[in-house]
Amino acid sequence: MDDPDTDPTCPLCGRPIPPEAPQSRHHLIPRLRGGKGGPTVLLHQVCHSTIHRTLSETELARHYNTVEALRSHPELVRFFAWVAKRPPGWKGKVR
């Protein structure tokens, strides 16, 4: 059972997501590709924005529709490793 006193963790960068940190839910299958009402994951906004700047909706639906697949994308691997060194509430701009 989740501890209500513990911040959720971003499954991509591994940092805690404090309440004050910019955050959003990512549809693992994009809504426009049949994912409406499907599974979502809570992410830091900077991680979420980077996914959508890197991959098209079609790529997300076909090949990157799991956390594991997203974590395996070569460009995203580098970004998540880099951002993991930032403080949990860091609001940096997407590269």
Automatic annotation (TrEMBL):
Transmembrane segments: none annotated. The keyword Metal-binding does not apply. Residues 10-53 form the HNH domain. The keyword rRNA-binding does not apply. CDD domains: HNHc (cd00085). Residues 1-25 are annotated as: Disordered. GO terms for molecular function: endonuclease activity; nucleic acid binding; zinc ion binding. Keywords: Endonuclease, Hydrolase, Nuclease. This is HNH endonuclease. The lineage of its organism: Bacteria, Pseudomonadati, Pseudomonadota, Alphaproteobacteria, Rhodobacterales.
